Amino acid sequence: MAQKKILVTGGAGFIGGNFVQHMVHKYPHYEVVNLDLLTYAGDLSKHLHIEYKDNYRFVQIDITNREEITSLFEKEKFDYITHFAAESHVDRSILEPDVFIRTNVLGTQVLLDAAIKYGITKFVHVSTDEVYGELDFDPNTFFTESTPLQPNSPYSASKASSDLLVRAYHETYGLPMNITRCSNNYGPYHFPEKLIPLTISRVLNNQKVPVYGDGKNIRDWLHVLDHCTAIDLVLHKGINGEVYNVGGHNERTNLEVVLTIIRTLGKSEELIEFVTDRLGHDKRYAIDPTKLEQLGWKPMFSFETGIAQTVKWYLEHRDWWERIINRDANVS
Ligand code: NAD
What we know:
This protein is of the alpha/beta class. It has a single domain, classed as 3-Layer(aba) Sandwich (Rossmann fold), CATH 3.40.50. Helices cover 42% and strands 18% of the residues. The chain has helices at residues 14-26, 66-75, 90-95, 97-117, 154-173, 195-204, 224-237, 254-264, 290-295, 303-316, 318-331, and strands spanning 4-9, 30-36, 56-60, 80-83, 122-128, 177-182, 184-186, 209-212, 218-223, 243-246, 251-253, 272-275. Strand 5, helix 5 (154-173) and strand 6 (177-182) form a beta-alpha-beta unit. Helix 2 (66-75) packs parallel to helix 4 and helix 6 packs parallel to helix 8 (254-264). The longest helix is centred in the first third of the chain and has 21 residues, at 97-117. The structure holds nicotinamide-adenine-dinucleotide (NAD). Residues 10, 12-16, 36-39, 41-42, 62-64, 84-88, 103, 107, 126, 128, 159, 182, 184-185, 191 line the site of nicotinamide-adenine-dinucleotide (NAD).
């Protein structure tokens, strides 16, 4: 089979990291290059077990650094780019929007320029359902690929801006691309500031678990390994120029998610602490994944099996998340 070279940006992060491992194992004849700046969210220790593999390499580059990106593309001929690198935490975007615009918008543009100049076969831009804004609580309404973009946070506005740039590079310069918009991911190697790993780590340490507002905001949960198979499918089979929503009909309120974890770990519901709601907190996200299913995607995990697997993983990898929590405590 032909050798292909794939650049995975943000491959030291949560989803990009899982995707790197998926590709390295599934496609031994592909060369997988993980490009990451290693911000607070990047962590290479998750890749210790693949570091020795011939088909895996890491390069530390900031995607906004045009000179370094150009010099990389001068040296290497990539077939594919899967673009995960981003500032990804909504709360941080409310406190510090600038870095979100720089990385998510300008960084994407630098990569798009390189993709055009060096003739990439496919650019997959990993985006979010948050670009669609919020839904009300009517359980019959879903985000489809034609839902208008109405982002509500600096994070989702920066992602929507990058989506529009990717679309424009397709229309203007003929960039072969797909955009994927997924719901909230969970699973192994999730940074412990996000709801599910935060809850698991706090419950295991018998600490209070903060829940925004009344806990009734609804998210549609997607296991990260199901997300990886979706990106893999879109990369190889996605129709050029198309957007694909990725989600699994796993809608849960934040409170239901926290209660599920507390019950799975056999702890007290008194650990829950309701805190002041997030500014501009979107009420509900829910994905209609029909278009991706028609391409052949089928998720492996229900929310129940996925949460059970994830809780087990966090129990078995305590050293990983404790090291990250302690590292950040020592920095701040
Ligand atoms: P993450 O924060 O865990 O990882 C992001 C990675 O990008 C980190 O390794 C970080 O070091 C790297 N990075 C940041 N700035 C960079 C820069 N300037 N140059 C190079 N690398 C840089 O994020 P994640 O949760 O893995 O999300 C990956 C992608 O998926 C993002 O684009 C995000 O918007 C999207 N997404 C995530 C979710 C989710 O639930 N986590 C949901 C929808 C969409």
